[in-house]
């Protein structure tokens, strides 16, 4: 770092994204990208928008917000659009947390929560998951803090039901509860219907996973008009043109082809269940993931060795060195063909390790 860096950021440890190597062709099962291309309508809309890139994009994301509101049974004033859902989460830490407004989230969850808390100097507490790696709703009822929960959680894939989320909302009327739904389209449920009854609920979503637009960087937040107004205050103070014209058009096109998204989600869920079943036959322990990835560990073989052996074969998955989950690997669900390639490699690796 340079000598000009302000001391507030000297100890900040940035988020580490999944690797995107270019040294060879890999089967990429490490960053939860969709194995399917974006909707043809999304691609066509983005190409058309490219013809007018000399003009600024609509800072209000008017049509995109209308489409999202209709999808979730809300009004446009319940919606904010962003450069990926990470931007909404960043805004939430900035406006709903502070020195006297701490944050609370699980000890094993999306790594950006810890980074954002430290970035803004927000006191935070990480609550240990249960022994089965699930979230206990009771842990989030009396904290006096802004709650951040990924649902389904990452990297475990485990999800809370709507009743559990409502229980947390009722227990925290004076604090915002943020439900990060990056993977909710694969679980079959969203907390968005609760927005009408709970002014303290903020739901975040993304086009990166289910709508195959990770490279476009498009996210959104759903909440009461008052909470959306708070987030818009910081957005307009940061970058009102945060969603570029091509991404916005692609997002609108994707929402106009919801049947394509639903079909892809069903295929991924089927492949997820297939992969979990096959891994269990090989002796793996897997969580009951409701996301587009599988979280698996083998009781007899080291997770790091399996990770490295897969990489040597050109297959990328993801793992962490945190003590409770270092034996696990997180595997993005791909096509059935990709899953069969992975399984063949895993069988070969286990044979070699015996």
Description:
With about 350 residues, the chain is of the alpha/beta class. The chain folds into 2 domains: about 5-35 and about 260-354, Alpha-Beta Complex (Aspartate Aminotransferase, domain 1), CATH 3.90.1150.10; about 40-255, Type I PLP-dependent aspartate aminotransferase-like (Major domain) (Aspartate Aminotransferase, domain 2, 3-Layer(aba) Sandwich). It is built from 10 helices and 12 strands. The chain has helices spanning about 40-50, 60-70, 85-95, 110-120, 160-170, 225-235, 245-255, 260-280, 305-310, 335-354, and strands at about 25-30, 80, 105, 125, 145-150, 175-180, 200-205, 220-225, 285, 295, 315, 330. The protein has a 7-stranded mixed β-sheet, with helices on both faces. It is globular, with a radius of gyration of 20 Å. The model has no long low-confidence stretch (mean pLDDT about 95).
Write the layout of secondary structure elements.
Layout: E1 27-28, H1 40-49, H2 62-72, E2 79-82, H3 85-96, E3 103-106, H4 112-119, E4 124-127, E5 146-150, H5 162-171, E6 177-180, E7 201-206, E8 219-223, H6 225-236, H7 245-255, H8 258-281, E9 285-286, E10 293-297, H9 303-312, E11 315-316, E12 328-332, H10 336-353
Parallel strand pairs: 1-11, 3-4, 3-5, 5-6, 6-7
Antiparallel strand pairs: 2-8, 7-8, 9-10, 10-12
Helix pairs in contact: 1-7, 2-7, 3-4, 3-6, 8-10
């Amino acid at each position: 770092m340079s000598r000009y860096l302000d001391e507030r950021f000297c100890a900040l440890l940035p988020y580490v994204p999944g690797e995107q190597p270019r040294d060879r062709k890999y089967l990429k099962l490490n960053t939860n990208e969709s194995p399917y291309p974006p909707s043809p309508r999304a691609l066509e809309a983005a190409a058309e928008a490219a013809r007018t890139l000399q003009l600024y994009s609509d800072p209000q994301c008017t049509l995109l917000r209308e489409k999202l509101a209709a999808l979730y049974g809300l009004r446009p004033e319940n919606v904010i659009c962003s450069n990926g859902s990470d931007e909404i989460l960043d805004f939430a830490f900035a406006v709903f947390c502070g020195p006297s407004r701490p944050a609370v989230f699980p000890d094993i969850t999306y790594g950006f929560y810890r980074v954002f808390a430290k970035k803004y100097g927000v006191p935070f507490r990480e609550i240990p998951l249960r022994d089965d790696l699930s979230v206990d709703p009771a842990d989030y009822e009396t904290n006096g803090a802004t709650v951040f929960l990924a649902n389904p959680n990452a990297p475990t894939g485990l999800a809370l039901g709507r009743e559990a989320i409502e229980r947390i909302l009722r227990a925290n009327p004076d604090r915002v509860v943020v439900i990060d739904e990056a993977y909710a389209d694969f679980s079959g449920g969203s907390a968005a219907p609760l927005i009408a009854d709970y002014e303290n609920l903020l739901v975040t979503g993304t086009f990166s996973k289910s709508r195959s637009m990770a490279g476009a960087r498009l996210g959104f937040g759903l909440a009461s008009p008052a909470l959306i107004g708070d987030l818009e205050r910081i957005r307009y103070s940061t970058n009102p043109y945060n969603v570029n014209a091509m991404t916005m058009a692609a997002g609108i096109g994707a929402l106009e082809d919801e049947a394509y998204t639903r079909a892809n989600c069903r295929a991924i869920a089927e492949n997820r269940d297939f992969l979990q079943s096959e891994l269990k036959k090989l002796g793996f322990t897997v969580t009951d993931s409701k996301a587009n990835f599988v979280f698996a560990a083998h009781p007899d073989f080291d997770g790091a060795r399996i990770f490295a052996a897969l990489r040597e074969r050109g297959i990328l998955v993801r793992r962490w060195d945190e003590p409770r989950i270092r034996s696990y690997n997180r595997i993005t669900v791909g096509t059935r063909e990709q899953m069969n390639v992975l399984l063949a490699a895993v069988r070969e690796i286990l044979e070699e390790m015996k």
